[in-house]
Amino acid sequence: MRNTYSGWRIRLDFICIFLVALAHKCLGSGNLTTPSCPEQERLALLMFKHSVKEDHGMLSSWGLDNDIDCCKWARVNCDVSGSVVSLHLRGYANEDHHLVADEVSSCFTNLVNLKHLDLSGNNFRQSQIPKFIGETNALRYLNLSKAGFSGNIPPQIGNLSNLEALDVSSQFINDQLMTNDIEWISGLSKLEHLSLSRVNLSGVQNLDNVLYMIPSLSKLILSDCGLHMAQLSSRHLNSSRELASIKHVDLSGNDFRGQLHGLFLNMTSLAFLDLLWNNFSMPSSFENLLNMIPHVSELHLASCSIENINLSPINSNISKHSNIQHLYLQGNEIEGMFPSILINMSSLLSLDLSGNKFNSFIPVMPNLHKLDMSANNLRKSEDVGIWEQCHLKELIVSHNELEGNMIGPSTNVSKCSQNALEILYLSNNRLNGSIPESFGRLTNLLELDLSFNDFTGPIPEALGNLISLQRLDISNNQLTSSIPESLGRLTTFNRNVYEFKPVYRLHSSIPRKAHVVGNSFVVFKFVKWDHSKFNWKTHQTPSNRHFGQFFKRSGFRRPFC
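^ that's the sequence the OP posted. Answer follows.
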């Protein structure tokens, strides 16, 4: 038995020695680590580094301490063979953290396996996009956006037959990046995402025909391109063909007027459409649009010269068949009463009607979660219907003409067994009297803004019941007395947006986390949430503007969507 065991052990030892020797021979010199990048590719990257100016260390690791393995350099990724496959060289021009050069170095053509190239946000000083970019045949992702290019987009980009995402957007319209012929796009048969924002396309003909040549296209962004309706109205268009892959279209800031072309009918999977800053002032344009985009769930029509007549339905059932969940109509000319076509859109979850001229009551829309009615002409606080909007989570009614006392459920019994409100903005109105104690019943509130009104009297103790409150602004009112003890017990301020620190302790009735100093100032020291880092700030505010001015000055504002 012992001899058998010894025999097997000798055989196993021999096999292990053989495998180690084989690995040594295959990988060379006993180096079992990932192969370093080829010399040609390393030199190409160093050539690019020497062709640009950068003062913030973006490329500081390239060639540092004679490191010959470019796969270990920052912003460089290699495949298992050691070949460079992606370069993440995005700059941040707004933060002055970017690369500067008079042109793009041709060294990229030596990176034969390069699949991902991002040069966005840099400054190539109004140079043209180089023609040789069309020779980097392995590219699947190319981002040259906001990089200071001008002139014509080279048609050679159409040679990148493996490309799946292309972004050549300009940062500014006056960068004068343009093209009069985009037939080259038809060579990008695998393209899924295309963005040409602020590229001058006003001379392009039959844009719609080109779209039919890219069967995989799902996201199209052509904002601020000087486009007009005729460019989407090819006479030779085969209306029976579908653009079934397109899900996201942004055509904002162009010169579309009146009725949209039937091209959108062929986008049978379209879910997102942005037509901001176009002109749809012709009667029934809105209804016509709804007929064309039955599957769209998010629609942006801000600043489109839409008036009441555009929202007067010819077919009263049209809005009931709409699938739109998020609708943005801010900055139009809608006035008076709430349009019935919107009330009947039962699919709506969020609705932005800010910057119009509404002056009537806000109807109850049971499925709606977010409503922005700021900057309208609403006058009566009861027309807002806070105590009837049981399902709303966000209600923004700032910058209206609301006046008089707020009416709470103590005098007008709430119709809601439980109110869902999380965000309530009533700032910049003319509301007066006391802040209703009934606000303390909105127990789901995360943010409450009552600033810039004419509220008087004490701060309600009931606000301390808002156990989830993260942001409170009651600045610029005429409130009196000290800050209630109950507000000092709200620990959500600490864990989320702001943290109060004691400065002075002059009155035992003042809560530990916020203090009145004499009769002239309230001093707050707090943490301001700034993306992923904290900034300490100290503010002094007049005592008749108790508790909250610091929120206004901090600049913190949760976006509507």
